[in-house]
Amino acid sequence: MRIASIRLGVLAGLLALAASAPAGVHRGRRVSGLGEILARMNDASRHLKSVSANLSYTKVTVLVNDQSTESGRLLFRNGRTPEIRIEFSSPDRKVFLFRKNRGEIYLPKINQIQEYDLAQKGALVQQFLLLGFGTDVNELKKDYSIRYVREEDLQDESAALLELVPRQASVAAQITKLDLWVSEDSWLPAQQKFYEPGGDYLIASYTGVKVNRALPSSAFSLNAPADAKRVKMN
Questions:
Q1: CB-CB neighbours of 9 under 10 Å
Q2: Whole-model pTM?
Q3: Pick the CATH number of 3-232 from 2.50.20.10, 3.50.50.60, 3.40.630.30, 3.40.605.10
């Protein structure tokens, strides 16, 4: 399975990615550089137990000048077995659920649940769905060359823009680089941009981010009817 497909396909159809967090810096104060940013991200990561956020995924196909956007909500609960739930509400409702090495997507239009065995790809799915959410900075530096680009105003808050270039050739063949906007209030992602070799890209935006709120186990379900047909996809 192509790494790009893990990110784009999970969200589009193949598998279809602060209460105790640091307070951050005051707006208007520039961070001192990459070292400070990564340290604050790492501190936020160590305290992260859960995330809920509104999300928007915009896929741009450059060659045909096509753009499509899906919007919905992300839930993430950290723990021994991390859980991710993404529910798209527009333009079509669909629900993606990832837990350990298993992925499921519920498609209400056809009342079907697609099941995926992610035994070999589970870590990659989590990495691309949750890049910057609870990510250990040391692991991030192993996988990417990281550069601090600048500070920007994004979604009414200050954000530090980082450029991440994959170190592994197998990854770079699918995703040439990633732009990561890190909120200087929560030190969590406010936006991500994934570039593919052909020039196409995906923008993931997060708003209304809430961290470390109690999320019950019932929140991490497909909520599909009992008569939904289950289909194994691999």
A1: 14
A2: 0.80
A3: 2.50.20.10
